[in-house]
Amino acid sequence: xxxxxxxxxxxxxxxxxxxxxxxxxxxxxxxxxxxxxxxxxxxxxxxxxxxxxxxxxxxxxxxxxxxxxxxxxxxxxxxxxxxxxxxxxxxxxxxxxxxxxxxxxxxxxxxxxxxxxxxxxxxxxxxxxxxxxxxxxxxxxxxxxxxxxxxxxxxxxxxxxxxxxxxxxxxxxxxxxxxxxxxxxxxxxxxxxxxxxxxxxxxxxxxxxxxxxxxxxxxxxxxxxxxxxxxxxxxxx
Length: 237
Ligand code: CA
Prior knowledge:
Helices cover 45% and strands 21% of the residues. By secondary structure, the protein is an alpha/beta fold. It has two domains: 4-127, Response regulator (Rossmann fold), CATH 3.40.50.2300; 134-235, Arc Repressor Mutant, subunit A (Orthogonal Bundle), CATH 1.10.10.
């Protein structure tokens, strides 16, 4: 799968040129023309890199960058600046950008920076994969900032150990082992609580609610354990 680059630029001609050049390099190009759409697309598409203009309608690039970093968005962000005072803001503030380019820039220069950033991401990913595959028999299941160690029955989130009740742990592990699959409440109940458990599928809902409070950034809008309408739940990682 080609890597995805989200281009956030409100000037149509430049946006088009950027998209054209990104695609020419074999990447998938997605475009946004304002800050709000950019945020929404970044969350939804999880691009491998973002080219982010600073002067944007609705929400400027600096706010977009800060918001994404607060949400632990990990991909590189390359800022595009038009004026000197913008450079000062990018360089002087801890906004979490990886690199910046001053307009006007050459496409060649831009593509060199894009490639450098994506290569770095690739190296990190390979290292993570090595760590994962060298672990004995997938002792640890890793979902970005969430890791589950089966031997120790230990769950770590953002480097802190989570205090989970035994049933919460069993439920989370069951979800993790069936990542991406729609699991009905009945199936979960049967597999996690067992045939002889006296209870109903609301037990599952209650435990999912508790788990969400512990592992979701925003339990009201869960991204790890999502509700499947008319079905049950799906663990997204
Ligand atoms: Ca602009």
